[in-house]
Amino acid sequence: THRSILNYDQIMLAFKSNFPDLNIIYADFTNISLYNQIKIVLKTDILITVHGSAETHMLLLNDNSLTIEIMPYLLETFLNLYRDIANLTKLQFIEFHTNKWSCFPKRRGWVTEYESNPKSICNGKFRSNLRNQNIALNDTEIDLILKLIKNHIRY
Prior knowledge:
Number of helices: 6
Distance between the termini: 34 Å
């Protein structure tokens, strides 16, 4: 499942203005070879990802690196996979939960249906919609992530 950060350019601008001395890159691994993905991750100290299989790259990070997992709305209700992996390593791990208004499911209307009947998560179509959400972080969420990074850098 491919999830995208829709406003990555705004986020990158905020990161670069707050951390001018850091080498900050945005990498969408969709069209990058595995070899080049590994080269990028091996030089990474802070990995920020939307929940998904790309988070397995955390296993290539150096000890004490930071992984921030951005959890789309409602997805956090039952998934702890990457937190559990991080707990087995020497990585620092933070789950960042987006709000309802920062997520853009590819099928509109399913959120209201789910909220009115949470047991519907057992239905395959709802699980698929739950996983297929793009994200656009608002200014408050970007600021919170910046604070998390600042706390890590001081560590």
